[in-house]
């Protein structure tokens, strides 16, 4: 079976698995990293959103064979370490606004939010209503409003 | 002073090594208030009362333990699916026990058959039915801790004060609950009578608190069923039929599929062909590769049009006799299409079935029924089946049922191995339960500014109540005010209320067609029934030349309803001038001893409906929502606010965008980009929820409350903005489909491979 090596939450990992298995399953079923959730496997719901080299992506849509040894995958579990803190400021804001209901979508929401803030900044602006409208992550519990509040607040703090 | 003149409650100290106290689940329903003039059954005695009363005769206990580390724990016989009951229950313990909230741990109890009716999470009933017993248990514990402290410190009880997990004595000496936990324990079971705090003494109940599991949720540590690690429980997915409830005739290539990478087993079960593999990705590959000959399903060839015909044929007649001269009538008929109650977490369960026993992990709101049905299917005694209730990733009616748990048990038995079974998203939409399609005919008559009659005939595809509510109704039938009705008609009578004094008021249900997989959906009938009614109220207001708000206000039966209506009208600036193509709508909804009002503003102008978002439906946008809610007493106003926000998002979706299309015996929707639940681009930019100060002093239902009011307010706003009362829901149902339907064979699509290029 082919071996695949990449960096997961700051540590080098190697897995033995067929090339075409999507990364979400390698994370959840092989490596036991269960922060990224399954909601569709179609790149639609965004529940699995994690970061690849600092950008938001859906691991359900990336065959593990496409990862190179230098690729850095960050899941919700590894997010705090990217800022060297117990919690990322986005997670802190999530607590402050008590965003989660069932919580199933929230790891993906937070990972998307961090990327959205960064994306807006790269475009030379702070995140605004139009950016928030673009977030595709489903929250079937309907926490959208608090997500908007938390992102807006967090963006002012880091 | 304690308890003088106050109602006392019975609790227990149970024999255990550390302080363990308990109280009986369920509380006598309060005597119903008299309602003038021919009340409907639900005014007097509603579903929630029935669930609360059903709890009375059981011997089941809610147990609170105090541990040596100074924490207390409670195993709640309910499901947590996002509604926040673990947090609100912890608050009840913290309040009476005088322990900081963060020192209270609430877990979910396994199925406990002796609880009978008392382990059903439904009808927004959890807080209503556990409000007293949890506090009683905690109060018993506090009493024991104080007594133990008196003994230890050698001081009289009267001088001791329990606060923040510490008992303090005069002169500054103190001892912690942790130090007292073993000493306060009892060697035998003892009954104790306690008085509870008065509302004025509350320091935790009624204060806004964050969710107990918030940190776990934001760090990804919160464990759902699919995150539970059970040795050897490999992923399982099913290859499901192309039509609703289709059957397996033959599998043509089982051996070839068994030889695919990662695949360990292939087995036929009643619902399809199950594949077990090292990863779900390999399950998907195998499901797609399976060649199956399918037999007929239960609804082959059915379509929205054919079901509508059935519904129209089954509609019950209206009864109000020919009208006197000068009387006018509003006569309207509404169609509510099938809607999906799929949560973000698809149906899923872990099962480990052995020859003589079985163990199941799943989020279940009716775990005792699940345990019984699984045991029956496996041919095991119920005592040989252990059912663990996991945290749920949303429910919306789905978790009342145990579809995945039963299926996982069957697959585990067929394969002789532990399994972690999960439905594919596409299956969850197409073969999963739906909220049934329905029509509602409403006719109201009025004359000289008075409404003389309001009749409603709701006709629906049958709702499945085979999850325990049915059993409760059977057992409670004798004491219900609606003798001789079928289950569904009883449910209808127990849940539907008309909040207005509209003269002769009748609401009747008839059902057709049991071939669909159905269930309730954050409310059973209310969102549709009340939306139809509130739209007719707007017509009545127009017919009598009145303003929709003042018209409602005038006819409302209850002051509490009037208060929430006034609140949203005031905060939402009702009647303000708005641009053409935009409008306000206002509606309210009473249920389960609670009442909520919603004011919505909608923008139906072309520049808004014409917005483009890739692979999405945009349509009108609800630009502002103001909601006021009175639940009698909000245990956790912050959690209540979240519930209202969620219900509002559901109401917006049900009114405007989220419906299923039935064609050729299957639903066309297969992903969240087909089924248009509210997304960020349709979230109201302005949203305000006001929790009213306590009114009745005891908590009413909240989980389902906002959906009906929000759906109705949005529908009313839409009608006023466009000048045409909407009669089909969701309003976009008849429009262009908005997506390319996925094929039905193979039943699930392959995962894309372009994730890297879409990274942002
Ligand atoms: S599971 Fe990856 S986008 Fe839905
Ligand atoms: S919190 Fe439940 S799906 Fe978002």
Automatic annotation (TrEMBL), chain A:
<keyword id="KW-0411">Iron-sulfur</keyword>
<keyword id="KW-0560">Oxidoreductase</keyword>
<dbReference type="Pfam" id="PF00111">
    <property type="entry name" value="Fer2"/>
</dbReference>
<feature type="domain" description="2Fe-2S ferredoxin-type">
    <location>
        <begin position="2"/>
        <end position="79"/>
    </location>
</feature>
<keyword id="KW-0001">2Fe-2S</keyword>
<dbReference type="GO" id="GO:0047121">
    <property type="term" value="F:isoquinoline 1-oxidoreductase activity"/>
</dbReference>
<dbReference type="InterPro" id="IPR002888">
    <property type="entry name" value="2Fe-2S-bd"/>
</dbReference>
<keyword id="KW-0408">Iron</keyword>
<dbReference type="Pfam" id="PF01799">
    <property type="entry name" value="Fer2_2"/>
</dbReference>
<dbReference type="InterPro" id="IPR036010">
    <property type="entry name" value="2Fe-2S_ferredoxin-like_sf"/>
</dbReference>
<keyword id="KW-0479">Metal-binding</keyword>
<dbReference type="InterPro" id="IPR001041">
    <property type="entry name" value="2Fe-2S_ferredoxin-type"/>
</dbReference>
<dbReference type="InterPro" id="IPR012675">
    <property type="entry name" value="Beta-grasp_dom_sf"/>
</dbReference>
<protein>
    <submittedName>
        <fullName>Isoquinoline 1-oxidoreductase alpha subunit</fullName>
        <ecNumber>1.3.99.16</ecNumber>
    </submittedName>
</protein>
<dbReference type="InterPro" id="IPR051452">
    <property type="entry name" value="Diverse_Oxidoreductases"/>
</dbReference>
<dbReference type="InterPro" id="IPR036884">
    <property type="entry name" value="2Fe-2S-bd_dom_sf"/>
</dbReference>
TrEMBL record, chain B:
<dbReference type="InterPro" id="IPR006311">
    <property type="entry name" value="TAT_signal"/>
</dbReference>
<feature type="region of interest" description="Disordered">
    <location>
        <begin position="740"/>
        <end position="760"/>
    </location>
</feature>
<dbReference type="Pfam" id="PF02738">
    <property type="entry name" value="MoCoBD_1"/>
</dbReference>
<dbReference type="InterPro" id="IPR000674">
    <property type="entry name" value="Ald_Oxase/Xan_DH_a/b"/>
</dbReference>
<protein>
    <submittedName>
        <fullName>Isoquinoline 1-oxidoreductase beta subunit</fullName>
        <ecNumber>1.3.99.16</ecNumber>
    </submittedName>
</protein>
<dbReference type="InterPro" id="IPR046867">
    <property type="entry name" value="AldOxase/xan_DH_MoCoBD2"/>
</dbReference>
<dbReference type="Pfam" id="PF20256">
    <property type="entry name" value="MoCoBD_2"/>
</dbReference>
<dbReference type="GO" id="GO:0047121">
    <property type="term" value="F:isoquinoline 1-oxidoreductase activity"/>
</dbReference>
<dbReference type="InterPro" id="IPR052516">
    <property type="entry name" value="N-heterocyclic_Hydroxylase"/>
</dbReference>
<dbReference type="InterPro" id="IPR008274">
    <property type="entry name" value="AldOxase/xan_DH_MoCoBD1"/>
</dbReference>
<dbReference type="InterPro" id="IPR012368">
    <property type="entry name" value="OxRdtase_Mopterin-bd_su_IorB"/>
</dbReference>
<dbReference type="InterPro" id="IPR037165">
    <property type="entry name" value="AldOxase/xan_DH_Mopterin-bd_sf"/>
</dbReference>
<keyword id="KW-0560">Oxidoreductase</keyword>
<feature type="domain" description="Aldehyde oxidase/xanthine dehydrogenase a/b hammerhead">
    <location>
        <begin position="219"/>
        <end position="298"/>
    </location>
</feature>
């Amino acid at each position: 079976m082919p071996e695949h090596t990449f960096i997961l939450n700051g540590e080098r990992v190697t897995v033995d698995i067929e090339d075409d298995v999507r990364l979400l399953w390698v994370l959840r079923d092989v490596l036991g990293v269960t922060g990224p959730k399954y909601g569709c496997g179609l790149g639609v719901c965004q529940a699995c959103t994690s970061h690849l080299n600092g950008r938001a992506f859906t691991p359900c849509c990336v065959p593990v064979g496409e990862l190179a040894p230098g690729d850095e995958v960050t899941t919700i579990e590894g997010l705090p370490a990217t800022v060297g803190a117990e919690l990322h400021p986005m997670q802190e804001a999530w607590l402050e606004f008590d965003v989660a209901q069932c919580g199933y979508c929230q790891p993906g929401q937070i990972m998307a939010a961090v990327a959205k803030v960064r994306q807006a900044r790269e475009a030379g602006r702070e995140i605004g209503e139009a950016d928030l409208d673009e977030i595709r992550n489903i929250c079937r519990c309907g926490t959208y409003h608090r997500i908007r509040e938390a992102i807006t607040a967090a963006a002012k703090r880091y | 002073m304690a308890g003088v003149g106050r109602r006392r409650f019975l609790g227990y100290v149970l024999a255990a090594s550390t302080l363990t106290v308990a109280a009986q689940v369920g509380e006598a329903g309060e005597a119903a208030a008299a309602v003038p003039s021919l009340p409907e059954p639900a005014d007097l005695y509603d579903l929630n009362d029935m669930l609360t009363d059903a709890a009375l005769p059981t011997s089941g206990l809610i147990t609170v333990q105090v541990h040596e580390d100074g924490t207390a724990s409670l195993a709640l016989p309910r499901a947590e699916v996002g509604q926040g009951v673990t947090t609100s229950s912890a608050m009840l313990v913290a309040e009476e026990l005088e322990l900081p909230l963060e020192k209270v741990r609430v877990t979910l109890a396994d199925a406990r058959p002796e609880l009978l009716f008392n382990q059903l999470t439904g009808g927004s009933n959890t807080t209503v039915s556990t409000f007293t017993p949890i506090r009683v248990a905690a109060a018993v514990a506090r009493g024991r801790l104080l007594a133990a402290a008196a003994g230890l410190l050698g001081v009289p009880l009267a001088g001791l004060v329990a606060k923040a997990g510490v008992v303090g004595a005069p002169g500054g000496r103190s001892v912690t609950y942790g130090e007292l936990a073993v000493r306060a324990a009892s060697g035998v079971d003892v009954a104790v009578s306690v008085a509870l705090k008065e509302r004025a003494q509350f320091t935790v109940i009624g204060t806004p608190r964050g969710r107990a599991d918030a940190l776990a949720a934001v760090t990804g540590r919160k464990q759902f069923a699919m995150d539970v690690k059970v040795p050897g429980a490999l992923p399982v997915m099913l290859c499901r039929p192309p039509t609703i409830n289709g059957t397996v005739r033959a599998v043509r290539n089982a051996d070839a599929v068994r030889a695919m990478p990662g695949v360990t087993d292939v087995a036929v079960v009643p619902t399809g062909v199950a594949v077990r593999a090292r990863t779900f990705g390999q399950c998907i590959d195998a499901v797609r590769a399976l060649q199956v000959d399918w037999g007929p399903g239960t609804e082959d060839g059915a379509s929205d049009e054919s079901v509508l015909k059935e519904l129209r044929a089954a509609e019950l007649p209206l009864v109000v006799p020919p009208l006197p001269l000068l009387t006018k009538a509003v006569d309207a008929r509404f169609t509510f299409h099938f809607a999906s109650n799929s949560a973000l977490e698809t149906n899923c369960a872990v099962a480990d079935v052995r020859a003589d026993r079985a163990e199941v992990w799943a989020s279940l709101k009716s775990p005792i029924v699940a345990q019984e049905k699984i045991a029956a299917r496996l041919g095991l005694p119920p005592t040989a089946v252990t059912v663990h209730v996991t945290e749920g990733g949303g429910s919306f009616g789905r978790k009342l049922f145990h579809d995945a748990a039963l299926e996982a048990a069957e697959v585990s038995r067929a394969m002789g191995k532990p399994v972690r079974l999960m439905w594919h998203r596409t299956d969850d939409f197409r073969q999963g339960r739906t909220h049934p399609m329905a029509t509602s005919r409403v006719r109201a008559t009025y004359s000289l500014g008075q409404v003389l009659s309001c009749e409603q005939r709701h006709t629906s595809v049958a709702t499945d109540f085979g999850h325990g509510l049915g059993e409760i109704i059977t057992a409670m039938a004798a004491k219900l005010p609606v003798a001789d009705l079928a289950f569904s008609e009883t449910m209808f009578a127990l849940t539907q209320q008309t909040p207005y004094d509209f003269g002769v008021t009748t609401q009747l249900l008839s059902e057709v067609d049991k071939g669909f997989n159905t269930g309730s959906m954050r409310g059973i009938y209310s969102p549709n029934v009340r939306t139809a009614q509130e739209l007719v109220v707007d017509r009545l207001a127009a017919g009598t030349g009145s303003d929709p708000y003042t018209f409602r206000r005038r006819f409302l039966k209850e002051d509490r309803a009037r208060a929430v209506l006034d609140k949203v009208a005031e905060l939402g600036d009702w009647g303000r001038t708005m641009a053409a193509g935009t409008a306000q709508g206002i509606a309210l909804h009473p249920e389960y001893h609670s009442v909520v009002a919603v004011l919505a503003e909608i923008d139906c102008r072309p520049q808004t409906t014409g917005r483009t978002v890739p692979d999405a439906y945009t349509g009108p946008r609800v630009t502002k929502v103001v909601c006021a809610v009175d639940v009698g007493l909000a245990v956790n106003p912050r959690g209540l606010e979240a519930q209202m926000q969620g219900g509002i998002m559901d109401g917006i979706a049900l009114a405007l965008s989220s419906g299923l299309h039935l064609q050729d015996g299957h639903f066309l929707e297969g992903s969240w980009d087909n089924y248009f639940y509210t997304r960020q681009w349709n979230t109201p930019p302005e949203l305000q929820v006001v929790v009213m100060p306590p009114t009745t002093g005891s908590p009413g239902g909240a989980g389902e409350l906002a959906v009906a009011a929000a759906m109705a307010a949005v529908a009313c706003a839409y009608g006023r903005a466009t000048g045409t009362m909407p009669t089909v829901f969701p309003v976009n149902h008849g429009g262009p489909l908005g997506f390319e339907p996925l094929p039905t064979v193979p039943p699930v699509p392959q995962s894309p491979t372009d994730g890297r290029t879409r990274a942002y």
